[in-house]
Amino acid sequence: MKFVTEWPPFSKEEFRKAIAKYNNLSAPRLNKLSWSHLKCIINNEACLGNIISIANMCFKLGSWLLHFKSSTSIIIPKPNKESYNSLKSFQPIVLLNMLGKFIEKVIGKCLKFSLISNNFIHLCQLGGLKQRFTSDASVTLTHFIHSG
Question: CA angle at residue 26 from 24 to 29, to 5 degrees?
C-alpha cells in the first residue's frame, strides 16, 4: 500500500466546486453567516486565497483552530404539534462556525477521494460513501468474479 506523507495543497477550484452546491436560503450559522455570504467572500480572490491558506496550514499542522471548534446548541419547536408540553415536541440543533464547517467539507471530500483512489476502503464499505451505491458494489463484485 502507498501512504501519502505530504498532502498536496488545496486548490481554488476545490473550494469553488464545494460552495456551488449549497443553498443560499439556509439559516445563518454561529458566526451569523449564511452560505450566500460565504459565496460572496469566496468570489474575492484575496479572501479565497486566505481561506485556502488557513485550510492548508490546519492540515499541515494537524490541528484545528479553536475558533472552528466552538458551537452553540439551540432548541426549536417542531411544526404542527398539538402540544408543546413534552420534549419530543422540540428539536435541538447545533450551530457551527460557517467557515470551519466549509473547510471540513472540503477536507472530507479530498480525504474520501484519496481513500478511494488508493484502495484504502474495503469493497464492503462502498455503501457508506456518497455516490457509491449497492449497484456499484455488485458491479465491482461481478467484475472480480469474471476476472478471477
Answer: 115
The C-alpha R_g of the chain, in whole angstroms, comes to: 20
SS3 content of the chain, % helix, strand, coil (to 5): 55, 10, 35
Give the number of residues written for the chain: 148
Predicted TM-score of the model (pTM): 0.63
Chain segment 34-50, per-residue pLDDT in tens: 778 888 888 899 999 99
- Segments making up each domain of the chain, as ranges: 1-76+88-117, 122-148
Burial of 64 (0-12, 13-18, 19+ CB in 10 A): middle
Q: pLDDT band at 122, cuts 50/70/90?
A: low
CA distance 57 to 11: 13
The H or E element containing residue 93 is strand 90-96
Contacts of 46 (CB under 8 A, 6+ apart): none
First to last CA, the chain: 21
